[in-house]
Structure formats: C-alpha cells, structure tokens
Design a protein that fits this description.
Elements lengths: L1 H18 L8 H17 L6 H30 L4 H15 L2 H16 L3 H12 L8 H30 L1 H18 L6 H14 L1 H17 L7 H8 L9 H11 L3 E8 L2 E7 L8 H34 L1
Antiparallel strand pairs: 1-2
Helix pairs in contact: 1-4, 1-7, 1-13, 2-3, 2-8, 3-4, 3-8, 3-9, 4-8, 5-6, 5-7, 5-13, 6-7, 7-8, 7-10, 7-12, 7-13, 8-9, 10-12, 10-13, 11-12
Length: 325
Amino acid sequence: MLMNTFAAFCAGFALNIILGSPRGVLNIENVVPKFTIRAERFLKRGYKDSSEAHRMAGVILLIMTLLLFFGVPSLLMRLIYPAAPLLSFVLDTFFCWTCFSVMHTRNELDRIARALASGRTDLARNGISKLTGTDCSDMNEDELIKRAVELAADCGADNAAGTLFFAAAFGGAGALLYRTVSVVRRTYSTRSEKSDDFGKAAHDVWCVLDFVPAHICALLSSFSASVFGFDTDSCFAVFRRDRKQLAAYNLAPCRCVYAGALGISLTPKSYIQDGVITFSAIGDERHISDCDDIAAAGDIMFASTFFTMLVFAAVKLLVTLIIIL
C-alpha cells in the first residue's frame, strides 16, 4: 500500500506536467465550487442571516464537501485495493493528477505575459480573471503584472506545495483532502465579505494544513531564485518585515520571496490610521515592473515545485523503505 501511494504520487505529478490538468468535471477545481455554491443556497434556508449562523453553516458545508470529495473516493479505494490493487493504483494516480494545477497556471501566466508584451491588456485582464475568479477589468498594466506574480507565488505555496505534501504522505486521498479544503477556501475568499463567513471554517483548516508546506516552498523558492541568478539577499528581510500583510498568511512567505528576489512590491493596500492614509505592501519597489517579471515568477514557481516534489518524494521513499525493511 505504501509503495502504491508513492508510485501514484509520482505518476499523478508526472501526468500533470505532461498533460496538464484534467478538464471539465474531472477537475476538482471545477466541481467543488459548483457544489459548495449550491449547498450554500440550501443551507441558507435553515440558518439565520447572521455572521455567527453563517459560520456554523460553513462548518457543515465543509464537512459535507469533504465527505463527498474526500470520504467517498477514499472509501472506494480502500474497498477496491484488496481485490484489485492495480485498479486502486489507477484511481490513486488519477486523484493525484486531478489535484495538481501547476502546468495550467504556468501556461496561463505565459499567455498573460505575451498579451501584455503585445499591448493586449484586455486579454491579460481576462487571463487574470480566469485564474482568480474575480473581476480585473479596472486593473492597469502594473497591477496586472504584480497580480500575475502573486498568482505564481500562491500556486507554489498552495496548489503545488500543499498538494505535494499531502499526496506524498497519503497518496490520492491526501491530495483530495487538501485540495478540497483549499478550493473551498479560495471560492469564498474571492466573494463578498458576507459570503466569507461561510468560508471561515475552510480558511482556518487550510491555515493549519498548509503552514508547513508553504514555508518549505518559500525556502525552496528562494533557492530556485538564486539558481536563476536573482539576488535573494533581501528575501528573508522582506519576509520578517512584511509576512503579516496578508490575511491568508500561508501565502505570505512565498510572496515575500518573490517580491524580494524580483525587486518589486506586491499586495498594495491602503488604510486610514489617525486620519492619515497609509499604504502597506510586501517588498520594495527597486525597479518598475514589466512583463519579464511574470516570466521570471513562472520560472521560479516551476523550479520550486520541482524541488519540492524531489524533497517530498525522497522523504516518502525513505520512510516507505524503512517501514518495509
């Protein structure tokens, strides 16, 4: 069983690199949001219209979603394995594959960079909107570039590192557990503040699950940036200073590394303090952002994902051999 999960983990990652993410209903990122939105409508009928009630409904929503997208597949694989190990391995591999979205994100970022380089900001806005699920029609070129860099950093910390960590530990079942929580969190993080009450449970669980993988990915992202010749001396300083600028703090370590390595600022925010408008951001603006920053961020993301895969695979293989022998 341990060797099966190790092989499925490696095969699922390889399929994503070669073929990209599965499409349509075969992709967990497509089906989970549709289910949660429909389930939310149902739950709203039984709960009062208040933040406390919506947060409790969010707990029920997360449990329902996990039972369907994690519990059922896990039970199916466990029942099939004794009679048909090969079929169980195929399912395990497929579940790992459907949870990765590294190549899809990188390909979309490449399209966004090419669109901006050719002056097609409308295509770039559409690409960013597709990846984030938010309206980006009011973003200028500088904002689009920085948002694309943030997407690369977030993909490394969340889609790649988190999924790789749990897939390495538990195979397809672990990947489904993590990605289900992650997708539910992201679904509500892009909606209104009121709707965020439904996503608080998913956000809290995700913060626990992704804490270790996200920080490992940040270290490997810094190493990847240095391999490509970027100056990473300021990455740790940016991390210490700006890591609390994000509510989704698991995403902050990688964003700090990318901002420090590329020499740009990310996640600009403004707030009023004592009657004075104050701006905060991750990183320092050492140069004017351009399309090359998106390409560089994509390279760092892809390399850090590869190194993360090697680290987790090596640990998984070592543990498996120790247990077997």
